[in-house]
Design goal:
single chain, about 450 residues, alpha+beta, SH3 type barrels, 4 domains, 3-stranded antiparallel beta sheet, 15 helices, about 15% strand
């Protein structure tokens, strides 16, 4: 570990001497009073502007980017007014006395102007956390540059180092890498969203191929952004071989499921066995696939629940895809009648009823078969087709109600068990006569 103590101590001593020298000057307190007064006036003006401007009604019909830009401008009113007041106060002091006695006002005006510019530039970023992080880092760098302490701070941060193999890690390196990674990942997200919109709007691509292209694009851009950020700060990617080896060991021992789900997701997207919108049954879970992600698929049950099923389960388990090659679904209904009914007449009426529900296919004729003679009566199996598997439950309900109404109208009775009880043996009946009085 390298540590340049003299550079750090020299920087701290220089900062301490400058601070003590400034605090002993009466002009410092005069400028500080002007700064406090300017801040109060700026806050009052900002409160007045916000009370007079209704951003909701003002931004009606505007694009989201323009609305966000105007919101930032209105929110930065205090900063703009403060920068203007400090600039005017410095100009007045320069005309009234020497320029050296208005240094604090100059610094305050430059810091406020730098913050205003940074906030306006960062208004194009949607993520609030990234906006705050980028704004804070950029303003700190601008502040150090304004006060003339940027080079000493850089040297102090670069003086502390830890050597890992052939890589020299310093606080300055980590800060640069963090800033570049944030910028690179933000640009990656913007480009990925743009390409995803173009891919999803393409009618020539199937849904599964669209998802595959989006995932591959995101992963490729992410790897490229990280590689560019590492190279920009001077890190040789070959120096990370030891970390890649450790990552391989970690994958071998603790990340098998994650990697298996990732690879399984790519296989599912490539072979098109399932795709968004398919009606599937996996174990006890049934519903439509609403999303296919890197680790899992989301199956919407239709009652507010969503099953998150790992991709590996779709590779290793039995999956029923109701809409793989044909969206038509076969509906089966079992019912019974008494032996008093005519089986041919029952089948004829059942076929007529099965052709009436909403969504039933007219191109495929329903069938009704006598399947069994039981103690209770005759059993029948009625089958018909519907155009959408989501209509199976509704179609069954409509057909059963229609069967009930038709059978009552036709005098066809439902099957019910008939039992005869025959008593044999037992004691003879006891004859009772008039009671004999004693």
């Amino acid at each position: 570990m390298d540590f340049n103590l003299n550079a750090v101590l020299g920087f701290l001593q220089s900062a301490a001497r400058s601070g003590v020298a400034e605090l002993t000057s009466s002009w410092f307190y005069f400028q500080l009073g002007l700064v406090v007064a300017g801040a109060g006036i700026a806050l009052a003006v900002s409160a007045l502007v916000r009370s007079r401007i209704d951003l909701t009604s003002l931004g009606m019909g505007w694009s989201p980017l323009l609305r966000r830009f105007v919101r930032v401008l209105v929110g930065s009113t205090s900063t703009a007014v403060f920068a203007l007041l400090m600039a005017l106060a410095r100009m007045a002091m320069v005309m009234a006395t020497t320029p050296g006695r208005s240094y604090l006002l100059s610094i305050a005006a430059k810091l406020a102007l730098a913050w205003l510019i940074i906030r306006i530039v960062a208004s194009g970023i949607r993520n609030s956390f990234i906006v705050r992080a980028v704004s804070l880092v950029a303003w700190l760098v601008a502040a150090l540059s304004i006060v003339g302490e940027l080079d000493p701070v850089i040297k102090a941060l670069d003086s502390v180092a830890v050597t890992l193999g052939g890589l020299r890690v310093t606080p300055l390196l980590l800060i640069k890498l963090s800033v570049l990674l944030v910028i690179a990942l933000w640009l990656t997200n913007v480009i990925s969203n743009f390409l995803e919109g173009r891919i999803t709007r393409s009618g020539d691509l199937t849904p599964s191929l669209q998802v595959l292209l989006v995932k591959m694009t995101r992963v490729g851009l992410l790897i490229f952004a990280i590689a560019v950020a590492l190279s920009a700060v001077g890190i040789n990617l070959s120096a990370l071989a030891i970390f890649s080896g450790a990552a391989g060991v970690g994958i071998g021992f603790g990340l098998q499921k994650i990697v298996a789900n990732f690879i399984s997701g790519i296989i599912l997207l490539a072979d098109k066995s399932v795709k968004p919108g398919d009606l599937v049954t996996i174990g006890d879970s049934s519903g439509r696939i609403s999303a296919m992600n890197t680790r899992y698929i989301s199956v919407a049950a239709g009652d507010g629940r969503e099953f998150l099923i790992p991709n590996e389960d779709l590779i290793t388990q039995k999956v029923t895809n109701w809409t793989y090659t044909d969206k038509n679904a076969l509906v089966k209904i079992s019912f019974g009648t008494s032996y008093d009914a005519d089986p041919q007449r029952v089948c004829q009426r059942a076929v007529e009823v099965a052709s009436t529900p909403k969504g039933a296919l007219k191109s495929k004729t329903p069938t009704c078969l006598l399947t069994e003679f039981t103690d209770a009566g005759m059993k029948f199996s009625l089958t018909f087709w519907v155009a959408d598997p989501d209509n199976i439950g509704t179609a069954q309900h409509e057909v059963l109600l229609a069967l009930w109404a038709t059978f009552r109208r036709e005098g066809i009775h439902a099957a019910y068990p008939v039992r005869e009880i025959i008593a044999r043996g037992g004691p003879p009946p006891v004859e009772t006569g008039p009671e004999v009085s004693r």
